[in-house]
Amino acid sequence: MATMRVDGTPTRTIRPLANGDGVEIIDQTALPHAYRWLRLLSLKDAARAISSMQVRGAPLIGVTAAYGVALAMARSGDDATLLSAIDTLAATRPTAVNLCWALARMQRCLRPLVPSQRAAAAWQESARIADEDLAQCRQIGSHGLQLLRSHAGRKARLEIMTHCNAGWLATVDHGTALAPVYAAFDAGIDVHVWVSETRPRNQGLLTAWELAQHGVPHTLIADSAAGLLLARGDIDAVIVGADRIAANGDVANKIGTYLKALAARAADVPFYVAAPRSTIDFTCPNAAGIPIEERNADEFRVVHGRNLAGVAGQLRQLPDGEAVANPAFDLTPAKLVSQLISERGCCPASAEGLLALYPEERHA
Predict the structure, then answer these.
(1) Distance between first and last Cα of the chain
(2) Tens digit of pLDDT for each residue in 126-157?
(3) pTM for this structure?
(4) Is the peptide bond before 32 cis (omega within 30 degrees of 0)?
(5) What is the distance between the alpha carbons of residues 276 and 142, in angstroms, rounded to a whole number?
(6) What is the dihedral of CA 80, 81, 83, 85, to 10 degrees?
(7) Could you give the CA distance from residue 323 to residue 354 in angstroms, rounded to a whole number?
(8) Contact 229, 268 (CB under 8 A)
(9) Residues 6 or more apart from 233 whose CB is under 8 A from it?
(10) Distance between CA atoms of residues 42 and 290, nearest Å
(11) 172 pLDDT above the threshold of 90
(12) 3-state secondary structure (DSSP) of residue 196
């Protein structure tokens, strides 16, 4: 049963259509002002949903890509279509390794099959990837809950800080960084979440929206307020997700994560990173090998929202000619990460720590 609830109704962030012609997703570009579903009926639809951030979060990007391959196979199961679909989807978001992980898994599944078998197999494999993501995120919640229990009780209320969105909306269900928070809340722990806005795409507003749906107390803050809260002792722990974790424990995550890690270290506050196996890139030795996506400058120049009359619209806050840099991610070195939380448990952010959880990745 799904734990994500919107207006009290259990759901998932992505689900196949009843007629089998496609899938539908929550359009995250409409949140938090409007909750609407968007149908993906073709490879082009899936690629656009990923690149335009109608779906966000590394695990959900991977699942959407898997379904994108299935949509392509429904049109034609030949080798050329399969390879073209893989290439098209791989180009949408370069930093989130879950994307390439899911595409490689789909390719391994489909390549040995004759073209006539590929469509059905693609839908089945996509559904398995989605179900596994849900199960892994549930386990992340269970393991992370044990860490949060160690902090609970020191104060009247457990104060957690997060960054970007690593909850339901970033996965099929449960979330990564927020999974332990939901587990703690459901276990009766008095927990409160400090949510940074996460400029320029304001994914923190999505975090606030889903926390409100679940009833978890929370407060939104400007990104630059995080250091003050940490320095004055208002925060018990910071938990974030990841878009890629290198083999040595270095972490790529939404821009602004590194600054929180630095502030947390200065304030002697634990900094946790939660992610499933599909986010760990054992082929990438360290942060130097992680590509950083540079997104369109208009994401910074143009603000989306509603005016005082409640009408949706856009506001240009900078002239067209103003030079803008818009890196989507930054890199947090392993030495600033207190623990990694995965579906297999918690470990130090190091090569040996990761290999202790995933011994099958050891190579002679």
Answers:
(1) 41
(2) 999 999 999 999 999 999 999 999 998 778 89
(3) 0.94
(4) yes
(5) 13
(6) 160
(7) 40
(8) no
(9) 267
(10) 29
(11) yes
(12) strand
CA dihedral sign, ordered 151, 347, 270, 93: negative
Secondary structure of residue 10 in the 3-state scheme? strand
Residue identified by tokens 């949408």 is: 92
- Residue 277, H or E segment: none
Q: Per-domain residue ranges for the chain?
A: 5-133, 143-361
Instruction: Collect all residues with Cβ–Cβ distance below 8 Å to 162 and sequence separation of at least 6.
Output: 177, 178, 181, 193, 194, 195, 196, 207, 238, 239, 240
Q: Which two tokens stand for residue 179?
A: 């999974």
Domain topology for 143-361: Rossmann fold (3.40.50)
Alpha-carbon span 223 to 203, nearest angstrom: 11
Outline where DSSP puts E strands in the chain: 5-6, 9-10, 14-16, 23-26, 37-40, 158-162, 191-196, 218-221, 237-240, 244-246, 251-254, 271-274, 280-281, 302-306, 312-316, 329-332, 339-342, 345-347
- Look up 298 and say whether it is catalytic: no
Catalytic residue among 243, 250, 268, 298: 243
Identify whether the C-beta of residue 255 lies closer than 8 Å to the C-beta of residue 323.
no
> The CATH number of 5-133 is which of 3.10.150.10, 3.30.830.10, 1.10.3720.10, 1.20.120.420?
1.20.120.420
Q: For position 94, what pLDDT does the model report?
A: 82
